[in-house]
Amino acid sequence: MTPSAVVSAGFRSTSPAVVSADFPNTSEPARTDRDEQLATYRRLVLHELPGRAARERWVVHADHCLGRIVLDHAVGGCWYDVLGRSGPGRRGPAFERLDDDQLARAVALAERIADGGDAVLRPLNTQSLAWRGKSSRARR
Hints:
Blueprint: H1 3-8, H2 16-22, H3 33-56, H4 63-75, H5 79-83, H6 100-116, H7 118-131
Helix pairs in contact: 3-4, 3-6, 4-6, 4-7, 6-7
């Protein structure tokens, strides 16, 4: 809304801050807490953590491995046993199929990994692999 339109609508302020506060942009849907958590998950697990893990030589560094670890711990076991693999009726990435509580746990864990690095990630990876019947191989 232009300043002149604001005046003609009975408002006197031409300040852009007032215009945007009085008349929010309704062309975009409001972001929900879930949207914010999904965005945080994507940012951390798909971008920030893999880059840092590669630079700092963590036990795993690929985004799909970090996702496996975070998803497994969010659901308390092998994620695809809980969420199912992609297929009919299951479209989109697994993290989008998490319920709100699982998503909150996943984001909190990704943030904990970001804070603690490889020292936090190693035991989580070991447990994730154990849920799959695999043993972890020390890379260092």
